[in-house]
């Protein structure tokens, strides 16, 4: 299961890093596995993942619900976070990604949610996807 999660994260990271429109909006090197300290501007963080067995009688499989979070580190930049979220959905919804050791059956956008962090007031958009993979 963890192999499928890591393979999908790596493929998503590669796709988003190569997306010229997203890079133009948020800047290069702004997609992170963990939240960076003292970041400024917009950035994207891989969020939570829930994985479930999706095996059949003959194939090993994994269903994942995963999140990407676009953070706006400046007050009032929620509009840019929503723009970035739209680009991410466009890049990943029903995308065909190559995964190491796994085959991606499908990747679909589920939802997007704009919210503000209560203590800091910083806006963020949580984007949720569902993916199904099979072990090669």
Stretches with pLDDT under 50, minimum 5 residues = none
CATH topology: STM4215-like
CATH top level class name? Alpha Beta
The number of helical segments is 3
Structural class: alpha+beta
Mean pLDDT: 93
Content of β-strand: 35-45%
Number of strand segments: 6
* Strand adjacency order, main sheet: 1-2-3-6-5-4
Largest sheet: 6 strands, mixed
Rg is: 15 Å
* CATH architecture descriptor: 2-Layer Sandwich
**Helix-strand pattern, N to C?**
HHEEEHEEE
Shape assignment:
elongated
Number of structural domains: 1
Report, as a whole number of angstroms, the end-to-end distance: 13 Å
Question: Helicity level, as a percent range?
Answer: 25-40%
Describe this structure in words.
With 136 residues, the chain is of the alpha+beta class. The chain has a single domain, classed as STM4215-like (2-Layer Sandwich), CATH 3.30.2000.30. Strands 1-2-3-6-5-4 form a six-stranded mixed sheet. The protein is built from three helices and six strands.
Kindly summarize this structure in a few lines.
Helices cover 28% and strands 41% of the residues.
List keywords for this structure.
6 strands; 6-stranded mixed β-sheet; 3 helices; alpha+beta
């Amino acid at each position: 299961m963890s192999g499928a999660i890591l393979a999908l994260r790596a493929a998503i990271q590669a796709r988003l890093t190569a997306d010229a429109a997203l890079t133009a909006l948020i800047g290069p090197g702004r997609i992170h596995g963990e939240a960076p300290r003292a970041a400024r501007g917009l950035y994207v963080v891989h969020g939570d993942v829930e994985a479930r067995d999706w095996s059949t009688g003959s194939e090993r499989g994994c269903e994942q619900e995963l999140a990407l979070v676009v953070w706006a580190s400046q007050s009032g930049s929620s509009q840019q976070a929503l723009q970035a979220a739209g680009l991410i959905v466009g890049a990943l919804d029903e995308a065909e990604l190559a995964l190491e050791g796994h085959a991606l059956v499908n990747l679909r956008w589920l939802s997007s949610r704009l919210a503000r962090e209560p203590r800091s007031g910083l806006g963020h958009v949580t984007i949720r996807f569902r993916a199904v993979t099979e072990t090669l």
